[in-house]
């Protein structure tokens, strides 16, 4: 049996708790770790507010807070009365220190270019771009949408927004024009910052075209700033009096912009994420709490030291990029590696070449990427010198023990601790993860909540379950970097996260705890699919499908997938007279890709005459999941017509 086959045969849920291997921190690692005294856990638990107040001291405050926490469930305010600026914390305080000439960002473009921005460079770029935004009329509180490839200017734009107090809404460059438009309209941005395009697997992906398409129906937008990433400005269609070139505006901009003293509870950014309905949620994060969360976790979990070269492979368009490419590491004065393109371009050793070239010491990536590396084979990492690495991390989905062991062996050379970090867009920063100098790891477990976090696994009624029993993950007390609301939809904030249980945060994940109190995350329990660590709502894909003229109705589910963790499978009924051909299947996949973005394309579409529904008309996706996974069908007694599911089942032959 190959590793991949073995992984498939073991149910990830049942197999997990049988994992007994324990990896203790080495004496060597423990001795040098930023945090190595286990007493920190008890101390934090004894007085969580005092603990977080102590952590907030890691930041520079223009004015200290008067009160640590106001908890009026489900509304929290942290560090009340405090004034600070996130860009000042990430840039100015290092610029004013021994770090001025230290590289802040080491960037590599996919075609191979390199740029190094010191903290001094970053300081001037951020200051100038802050003035550019101001000159375009952006004021404190105005939302700025950013739609860019992974170039340093993306980080610069983010920090410039933070500097002037304009909340940013970064939209991942892989999202479609429609998705971009929806996000612009939801938060009513006046400004969009974009680029002509970006490089991905040897292709130039045109972003500006998507912006033009999106803006056909986004009346709030007044100005667009375009960064030139491609070869030829003349190829880009610029709208008069609306579109401006980044470099031309920067040339004229003043080199200093006073950082806006932000209230601790002022919005720093919003970031859209998928939920159970078709409409993405604008997750709101505020300044003081968020910055405290990301700064503390980066220091403690990634064990950041002055000489580290830190690389988180996430795109800034996702929360992992916000917290652990930009705000967390830069707030700690670290050197961050940023890479524009794909892991297999020009060859499957690209990541390892980058690790070798820049002597990366800390490497943070996703289980789906690790499973791809596994499949590609060890020859690729073997080609490169990975001896600089000292700490590894994973995020985005549960990691199967086989992938964990592979990462440990072939990338970490059996000497690097692995931090499996559980968190969400909503949590802002990591909540469950080992502190690498203290906590022994078990492959597949995110281990225990970090100091200052109170989490548990409970049943449907909110009662803690016995060790080894499945249940729902909950967070039992507020934490500084928690979301404050959903932009423009407070009711949805309450309903989604605070209605299942009284005064406990419900993240939407299933979990188990073992006898040692270790948490084993079991995936989403709602209608959210986790494809390669990215969240896609079933309803979003369903809406995109029924938007096609041939489709009458659709039901979308997540099916387990060797590399992606989960993939999207759709069951579709067609309009009268339309035939379900392979060509139509292809066309529908492309349609979803165009409506939402490539990550949302279904792996497989099944045409069925009917969908299984309850008597009240609700589609029973649970049964479709059973069919897709090849499981025995669950309870079918509530079906309006039980023969429907039998017909789909006999039609569904798992040939692929
Ligand atoms: C950071 C991020 C959040 C969802 C979350 C989980 C899943 C993330 C882990 C994980 C098991 C992990 N934000 N998830 N990390 N599951 N172990 N270490 O991914 O908002 O995009 O997704 O991702 O289901 O609810 S996210």
Features:
single chain, about 650 residues, alpha/beta, binds 5'-O-(acetylsulfamoyl)adenosine
Please describe the topology of this protein.
Layout: H1 3-9, H2 12-16, H3 27-32, H4 39-46, H5 48-56, E1 67-72, E2 75-80, E3 83-84, H6 86-95, E4 103-108, E5 114-118, H7 119-135, E6 144-147, H8 152-164, E7 168-170, H9 177-187, E8 191-195, E9 197-200, E10 203-206, H10 208-214, E11 223-227, E12 243-245, H11 246-252, E13 262-263, E14 267-273, E15 281-286, H12 287-301, E16 309-312, H13 319-331, E17 335-339, H14 350-358, E18 362-365, H15 367-376, H16 379-382, E19 391-395, H17 401-411, E20 418-421, E21 455-458, E22 470-475, E23 485-486, H18 490-498, E24 509-513, E25 519-524, E26 528-531, E27 534-537, H19 538-546, E28 551-561, E29 565-574, H20 582-595, E30 604-607, H21 621-628, H22 642-651
Parallel strand pairs: 4-17, 6-7, 6-8, 8-11, 11-12, 16-17, 16-18, 18-19, 19-20, 29-30
Antiparallel strand pairs: 1-2, 3-13, 4-5, 9-10, 14-15, 15-23, 21-22, 22-24, 24-25, 26-27, 28-29
Bound molecules: 5'-O-(acetylsulfamoyl)adenosine.
5'-O-(acetylsulfamoyl)adenosine is lined by residues 273, 318-320, 395-398, 420-425, 446, 507-509, 521, 523-524, 530, 533, 535.
Explain what this protein looks like in three dimensions:
Helices cover 32% and strands 22% of the residues. The strands form nine sheets. A seven-stranded mixed beta sheet has the order 5-4-17-16-18-19-20, sandwiched between helices. A five-stranded parallel beta sheet has the order 7-6-8-11-12, with helices on both faces. The chain has a four-stranded antiparallel beta sheet with strand order 21-22-24-25. The model is unreliable at 1-14 (pLDDT under 50).
């Amino acid at each position: 049996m190959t590793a991949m086959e073995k992984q498939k045969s073991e149910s990830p849920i049942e197999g997990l708790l049988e994992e007994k291997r324990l990896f203790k921190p080495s004496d060597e690692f423990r001795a040098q770790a930023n945090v190595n005294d286990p007493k920190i856990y008890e101390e934090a638990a004894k007085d969580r507010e005092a603990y977080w107040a102590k952590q907030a001291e890691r930041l520079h405050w223009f004015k200290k807070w008067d009160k640590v926490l106001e908890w009026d469930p489900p509304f929290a305010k942290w560090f009340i009365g405090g004034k600070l600026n996130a860009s000042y914390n990430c840039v100015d305080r290092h610029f004013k220190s021994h770090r001025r000439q230290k590289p802040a960002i080491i960037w590599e473009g996919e075609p191979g270019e390199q740029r190094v921005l010191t903290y001094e460079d970053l300081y001037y770029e951020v200051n100038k771009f802050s003035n550019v935004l101001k000159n375009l009329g952006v004021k404190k509180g105005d939302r700025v949408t950013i739609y860019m490839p992974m170039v340093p200017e993306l980080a610069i734009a983010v920090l410039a927004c933070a500097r002037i107090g304009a909340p940013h809404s970064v939209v991942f460059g892989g999202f479609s024009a429609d998705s971009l438009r929806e996000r612009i309209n939801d938060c009513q941005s006046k400004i969009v910052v974009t680029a002509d395009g970006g490089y991905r697997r040897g292709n130039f992906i045109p972003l500006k075209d998507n912006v033009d398409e999106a803006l056909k129906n986004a009346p709030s937008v007044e100005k667009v700033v375009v960064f030139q990433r491609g070869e030829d400005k003349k190829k880009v269609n610029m709208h008069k009096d609306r579109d401006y070139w980044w470099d031309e505006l920067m040339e004229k901009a003043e080199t200093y912009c006073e950082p806006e003293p932000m209230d601790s509870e002022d919005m720093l950014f919003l970031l859209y994420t998928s939920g159970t309905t078709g409409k993405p949620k604008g997750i709101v994060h505020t300044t003081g709490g968020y910055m405290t969360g990301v700064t503390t976790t980066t220091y403690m979990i990634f064990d950041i030291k002055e000489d580290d070269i830190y690389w988180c492979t996430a795109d800034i368009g996702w929360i992992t990029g916000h917290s652990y490419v930009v705000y967390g590491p830069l707030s700690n004065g670290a050197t961050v590696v940023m890479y524009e393109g794909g892991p297999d371009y020009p060859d499957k050793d690209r990541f390892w070449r980058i690790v070798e070239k820049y002597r990366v010491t800390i490497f943070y990536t996703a289980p789906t990427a690790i499973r791809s590396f596994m499949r590609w084979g060890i020859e690729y990492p073997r080609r490169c010198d990975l001896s600089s690495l000292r700490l590894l991390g994973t995020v985005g989905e549960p990691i199967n023990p086989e992938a964990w062991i592979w990462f440990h062996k072939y990338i970490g050379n059996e000497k690097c601790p692995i931090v499996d970090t559980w968190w969400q867009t909503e949590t802002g920063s990591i909540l469950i993860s080992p502190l690498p100098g203290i906590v022994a790891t078990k492959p597949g477990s995110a281990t225990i909540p970090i100091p200052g976090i109170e989490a548990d696994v409970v049943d449907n009624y909110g009662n803690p379950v016995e060790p080894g029993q499945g249940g729902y993950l909950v967070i039992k007390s507020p934490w500084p970097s928690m979301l404050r609301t959903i932009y423009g939809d407070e009711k949805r904030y309450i309903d989604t996260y605070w209605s299942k249980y009284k005064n406990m945060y419900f993240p939407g994940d299933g979990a188990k705890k073992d006898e040692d109190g270790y948490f084993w995350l079991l995936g989403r329990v709602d209608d959210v699919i986790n494809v390669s660590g990215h969240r896609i709502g079933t309803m979003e894909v369903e809406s995109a499908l029924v938007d096609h003229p041939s489709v009458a109705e659709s039901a979308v589910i997540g099916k387990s997938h060797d590399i992606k963790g989960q993939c999207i499978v759709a069951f579709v009924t067609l309009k009268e007279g339309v035939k379900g051909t392979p060509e139509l299947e292809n066309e529908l996949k492309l349609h979803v890709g165009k409506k939402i973005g490539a990550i949302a394309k279904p792996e497989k579409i099944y045409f069925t005459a009917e969908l299984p529904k309850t008597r009240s008309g609700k589609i029973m996706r649970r049964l479709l999941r059973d069919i897709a996974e090849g499981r025995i069908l669950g309870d079918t007694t509530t079906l309006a017509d039980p023969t429907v599911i039998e017909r789909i089942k006999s039609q569904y032959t798992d040939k692929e």
